[in-house]
Write a structure and sequence with these properties.
7-stranded mixed sheet, Metallo-beta-lactamase, Chain A, Arc Repressor Mutant, subunit A, alpha/beta, RibonucZ/Hydroxyglut_hydro, about 20% strand, 5-stranded mixed sheet, Glyoxylase-like metal-dependent hydrolase (Beta-lactamase superfamily II), hydrolase activity, about 350 residues, single chain
Length: about 350
């Protein structure tokens, strides 16, 4: 939720020479185009879908959100490079969040393109499918929010929920291929490393083209913001610990150009990983200091001692959705302090209470 470097709102991408959300199929390397697709939200604004051309058709890294305006733009951008939906042979989806997965799910079903997704995302898909069938009676995020001591936010998130808000089953079909472990994927002349990077979600993958020095980074390494942590259901133990270990794993790869899901193309995976690791170590220190000063506290209370976004806004200044995100991310930091032996967690009827060790 917090940023570093150039503001995403003002970031120009070097491939286009324009703001990174500018419509078009922008060439980032020979045979690879970046297509920003719109998102129906105020924050991220767009997702970058990457098109990799080969003699037997197209491979897309991520698919976008299955909304009409994004589908129409993807269609027109593919046509601008002489292709169409029927040329898509495969989607390599970095993770299960709707802005990455749902268009791939829909187009894969319609056009017979293979959809590949990390096997760690299966519990989330099972939950989404059950929700779509009306088998889940409560918003699963409410459970996580209450455990963070944010019952007021949980109640507001779920207020007024109707059947129209349930997941559409066609958007959330199981993929054709479950990605497991680290392995190579052949895409035309390219051999791309599929690297499992859990943290943002349990089954997140990045795709490294070492020969051309490119990292299709999904939401794992973002150039202008820090990926959200803890915003996933079913809840995972120690998501921040997994995320930081995955960052270290990516740091062990060659220094690659970042092709992110959100934001402009950026020059150095090593430099950005170092910034992200330092950022979270600083947040851990601040969370520990809050516990020592306040005594036993819920994550939502500790969140009020932290600054949010690049503007260091207070928790109370955030809108409802982002207060929930902040509470869940703070809980992830506190859970890592517990894993490191620097804090203790106690379950209560009103959520998890943390205290400094």
């Amino acid at each position: 939720m917090t940023s570093g470097g150039v503001s995403t709102a003002h970031a120009v991408s070097p491939d286009s020479g324009e703001h990174w959300t500018a419509e078009g199929a922008w060439q980032v390397a020979p045979g690879i185009h970046r297509i920003p697709l719109p998102l129906p939200m105020d924050g991220l604004r767009a997702i970058n879908v990457y098109v990799v051309e080969s003699d037997d058709g197209l491979t897309l890294i991520d698919g976008g959100w299955a909304i009409p305006v994004a589908r129409e733009l993807l269609d027109s951008c593919l046509r601008s490079i002489g292709s169409g939906f029927g040329d898509i042979r495969r989607f390599l989806v970095t993770h299960v969040h709707r802005d990455h997965f749902t268009m791939a799910s829909v187009l894969g079903q319609e056009y017979g393109a293979e959809v590949a997704l990390g096997e760690g995302e299966k519990p989330a898909l099972e939950l989404l499918q059950a929700s779509g069938r009306g088998e889940v009676t409560e918003n699963p995020f409410a459970v996580v929010l209450r455990s963070a001591g944010a019952a007021d936010v949980a109640e507001a998130w779920t207020a007024g929920r109707t059947d129209a808000d349930l997941p559409d089953p066609k958007d959330w079909q199981f993929p054709d291929t479950w990605l497991a472990g680290d392995h190579e994927v052949v895409v035309g002349r390219r051999t791309i490393d599929a690297v499992h990077t859990p943290g943002h979600t349990p089954g997140h993958y990045v795709f490294a083209d070492r020969a051309d020095g490119l990292l299709f980074a999904g939401d794992h390494v973002l150039p202008t913001i820090t990926p959200s942590i803890g915003f996933t259901v079913p809840a995972e133990p120690d998501p921040l610990g997994h995320f930081m270990a995955s960052l270290t794993k990516v740091r062990s790869l060659p220094d690659l150009r970042i092709l992110p899901a959100h934001g402009p193309v950026a020059p150095s995976s090593h430099a950005r990983v170092d910034e992200l690791l330092a950022h979270h170590e600083d947040r851990l220190v601040r969370c520990r200091e809050s516990l020592r000063r306040r005594g036993p506290s819920y994550a939502a209370v500790v969140a009020t001692d932290l600054g949010w976004t690049r503007h260091e806004r207070s928790y109370d200044e955030l809108d409802l959705f982002n207060r929930g995100m902040a509470a869940m991310e703070t809980k992830a930091h506190l859970d890592l302090l517990v894993a490191r032996g620097e804090a203790v967690a106690d379950e209560t009827a009103d959520g998890v209470v943390y205290r400094a060790h």
